[in-house]
Amino acid sequence: MRKVIQLFHVSLDGFVQGPKGEGDIEHFIVDNEVNDFVAPRIQKCDAALYGRKTWELMESYWPTAGDNPKASAQTKAHAKWYKSIDQFVLSHSMKSDPSKKVTVIGQDLVKEINDIKKANDEEILVFGSPSAGYALQQSGLVDGYWLFVNPILLGKGTPLFHDREAPKKLRLVQSHTFTSGVVSLSYERIK
To answer: Do 23 and 17 touch, CB atoms closer than 8 A?
Structure first.
């Protein structure tokens, strides 16, 4: 059965976006060392899940990013992966587009995600998308977290975890420290 894994860059004080909604580019370190580390795991996945806003951002860049003659090998590989995977988008306003391998999930979140999880044993990575992440967390659909803790204190912004009422036990699966001070932490939910 597939596992839903949320991937976030997060500040040391637990925020995935700054106070004005700014994310990875403004505050978080996403350098070649981090990209080289994440690439093998991402390349193994055959599906990604996004919120609508994050998907629109990705869709505006990745389909053609690898076509640029000056694109790095990392960019070309990720663009190729992006075009080959099944993409799931949480949205009440979008429509599915089978020609792009985009399936919109909007009505019965729990049923639709559980159906997708039954398809195979690959991970479904949830990229960013705090609102989508909250919906998945509150529905008990997140199986793990892949966090990149950045050495910065934002003070306020969008927290990684919105619903702190129900305790959730996690088990550390892997950790890795980068020369930039970023720490990758991979956790599984204990059921």
So the answer is: yes
Whether the Cβ atoms of residue 85 and residue 45 lie closer than 8 Å to each other: yes
Quick: pLDDT tens for 34-84: 999 999 999 888 899 999 988 998 999 999 999 999 999 999 999 999 999
pTM of the model: 0.89
Handedness of CA 116, 145, 43, 65 (dihedral sign): positive
Please give the CATH number for the structural domain made up of 3-189: 3.40.430.10
Beta bridge partners of 7: 127, 146
Rounded Cα gap, residues 5 and 71, in angstroms? 28
| Strand 47-51 with 123-127, pairing | parallel
Instruction: Give, in degrees to the nearest 5, the angle at Cα 85 between 81 and 121.
Output: 110
The helix or strand, by DSSP H or E, that contains position 48, with its residue range, turns out to be: strand 47-51
**Residue 20 carries which DSSP code?**
T
Question: What is the mean pLDDT of the segment spanning 102-121?
Answer: 88
pLDDT grade for 25, boundaries at 50, 70 and 90: low
Tell me the two tokens of residue 75: 């960019």
Please name the helix (run of DSSP H) or strand (run of DSSP E) that holds residue 39, with its range, or none.
helix 32-44
What's the residue count for the chain? 191
Confidence bin at 119 (pLDDT 50/70/90)? confident
Domain spans of the chain, in order of start: 3-189
Which CA distances in Å does 89 have to 37, 81, 94, 97, 190?
25, 17, 8, 11, 26
